[in-house]
Backbone:
């Protein structure tokens, strides 16, 4: 799978304007993009599971995994099945990031932003593949990707997710004792299958569209951010926030 590294996205991760005219930064982005493409070993997997609501949370049937918290319950409100996915850029990208951290702060930041852009692009493609499968089965849609750590969904389920997908063996993806993914440029996520859309889903879609249309963060409706996201540990990296979606942690 060829992964696109979109310059505008890289600049967003660097918190720079998409119109930035800096020859040096532009050259470093080009260099990092071409270097990272040679190092990426993109691997992914996903599996579909039925779910059921229990007193403890949402039980993923056939596994020992229970998804706890208000936000994931809300996210999967219309779903009886979920897909759990995992994806990684592989260990070589991490090694290069560590190398650049020692030799140049600027280069390491740019390389890191390119890597984040690449893993998100890869996840977009995996999500599109899942969506195709879901629609072909006669369902209406899927939810957006929801990762451990979003809202009040605990990050401690990371290891259990990897275990049930057999991710360590199949794609070399593991988690540290603090539940950080290794390699770091990796993602796990939960996607709900929507058999029938409600008004709430349509509103969420509108918010995504609005987020995508407005490329400048300042132009977006920032209400949810000022109300909920400012104190979140994921504030800098949260893909949902960047798309103008609120995880529902307190809703
Ligand atoms: S940054 Fe906002 S949307 Fe993202 S996980 Fe945190 S509270 Fe939720």
Residues:
């Amino acid at each position: 799978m060829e992964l696109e590294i979109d310059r505008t996205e890289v600049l967003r991760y660097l918190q720079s304007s998409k119109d930035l005219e800096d020859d040096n930064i532009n050259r470093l982005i080009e260099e990092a993009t071409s270097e990272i493409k040679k190092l990426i070993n993109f691997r992914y997997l996903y599996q579909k599971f039925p779910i059921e609501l229990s007193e403890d949370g949402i039980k993923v049937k056939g596994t020992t995994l229970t998804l706890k918290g208000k936000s994931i319950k809300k996210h999967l409100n219309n779903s009886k099945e979920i897909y759990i996915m995992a994806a990684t850029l592989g260990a070589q990208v991490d090694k290069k990031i560590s190398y650049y951290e020692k030799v140049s702060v600027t280069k390491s930041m740019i390389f890191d932003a390119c890597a984040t852009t690449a893993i998100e692009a890869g996840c977009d493609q995996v999500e599109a593949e899942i969506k195709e499968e879901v629609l072909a089965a006669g369902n209406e849609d899927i939810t957006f990707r929801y990762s451990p750590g979003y809202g009040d969904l605990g990050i401690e389920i990371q290891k259990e997710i990897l275990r049930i997908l057999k991710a360590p063996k199949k794609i070399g993806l593991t988690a540290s004792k603090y539940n950080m993914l290794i390699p770091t440029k990796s993602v796990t996520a939960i996607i709900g299958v929507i058999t029938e859309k409600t008004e709430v889903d349509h509103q969420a879609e509108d918010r995504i569209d609005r987020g995508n249309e407005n490329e400048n963060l300042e132009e977006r409706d920032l209400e949810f951010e000022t109300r909920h996201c400012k104190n979140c540990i994921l504030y800098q990296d949260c893909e949902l926030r960047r798309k103008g979606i609120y995880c529902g942690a307190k809703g």
Notes: The first strand starts at residue 43 and ends at 53. Residues 188 and 201 are 22 Å apart (CA to CA). The two ends are 37 Å apart (CA to CA).
